[in-house]
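About this split. The held-out portion is used to measure sequence recovery: a designer receives only the structure tokens and must propose an amino acid at every position. Recovery is the fraction of positions where the proposal matches the reference. Here is one held-out target exactly as it appears in the evaluation file.
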């Protein structure tokens, strides 16, 4: 199969999915109910939102956007966004099934964000922290130049203000539309992590569903303390790619937070409802 035919087939599949989504909207089905992707139960959307987007039956943690995450983790009216005006560019004039410029426009219209991370400072139970919170809804939380730059700047801000740093990850990996420029962000953020370590700044990473690729291979797993949300999938390559490479079937819980905790790759697992308290305890223990 040629690259061109692969892109054409992918575009056809995308068009079919969009047509189906449009039909569902016309039928008026979505809005009041949400189906749990884990247990299949139809849940009243209001009840799900009141439960912090966690299924009350099977405890599945739905993906949430960065703004919702900020509201859940930080004290009310304490979050101050920084570097909000940074926008991605298209230095390669990249086109796959769609021009990168168009993808940027659509992602911004969908999320209201300039890129896949919100950076700033805020307080968690009265303790001020610098933070960078990724949003999977913006192009799969892919890490491009803006994401890497904002994360790095917040780490530098943590050093400047002498406050802890919290990175919340949700990413499919590097942004292919920026090619090597995207991969360079791995080195840049890793160097910033080293500078925080030299300055004695506490660095906490919170890994959420999903965290993969270049984010996992750089600042996502370089925290002094690595926290994961219950059930989150975390890894580098995807499960199917690994199985095809090694030609073996992997365990059902492979790449879950629980699996990684078992083998010492993360330090703490917390449910979403207890996450603010978990982070608060860690910050309090390291306050001095």
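Reference sequence for scoring:
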């Amino acid at each position: 199969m040629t690259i061109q035919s692969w892109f054409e087939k992918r575009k056809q599949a995308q068009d079919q999915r969009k047509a189906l989504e449009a039909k569902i909207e016309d039928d008026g089905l979505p809005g009041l109910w949400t189906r749990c992707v884990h247990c299949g139960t139809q849940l009243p959307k209001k009840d799900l939102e009141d439960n912090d987007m966690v299924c009350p039956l099977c405890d599945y943690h739905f993906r949430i956007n960065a703004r919702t995450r900020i509201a859940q983790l930080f004290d009310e009216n304490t979050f101050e966004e920084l570097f909000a005006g940074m926008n991605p560019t298209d230095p390669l004039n990249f086109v796959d099934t769609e021009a990168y410029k168009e993808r940027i426009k659509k992602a911004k219209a969908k999320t209201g964000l300039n890129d896949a991370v919100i950076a700033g400072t805020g307080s968690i139970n009265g303790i001020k922290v610098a933070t960078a919170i990724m949003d999977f809804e913006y192009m799969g939380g892919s890490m491009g130049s803006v994401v890497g730059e904002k994360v790095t700047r917040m780490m530098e801000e943590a050093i400047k203000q002498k406050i802890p740093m919290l990175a919340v990850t949700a990413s499919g990996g590097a942004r292919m539309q920026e090619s090597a420029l995207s991969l360079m962000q791995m080195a840049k953020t890793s160097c910033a992590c080293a500078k925080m370590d030299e300055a004695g700044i506490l660095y906490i990473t919170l890994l959420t569903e999903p965290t993969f690729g270049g984010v996992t291979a750089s600042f996502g797993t370089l925290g002094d303390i690595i926290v994961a949300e219950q059930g989150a999938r975390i890894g580098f390559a995807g499960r199917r790619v690994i199985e095809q490479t090694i030609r073996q079937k992997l365990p059902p819980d492979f790449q879950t937070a629980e699996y990684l905790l078992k083998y010492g790759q993360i330090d703490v697992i917390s449910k979403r409802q207890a996450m603010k308290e978990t982070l608060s305890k860690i910050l309090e223990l390291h306050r001095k």
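Annotator remark: Residues 89 and 101 are 8 Å apart (CA to CA).
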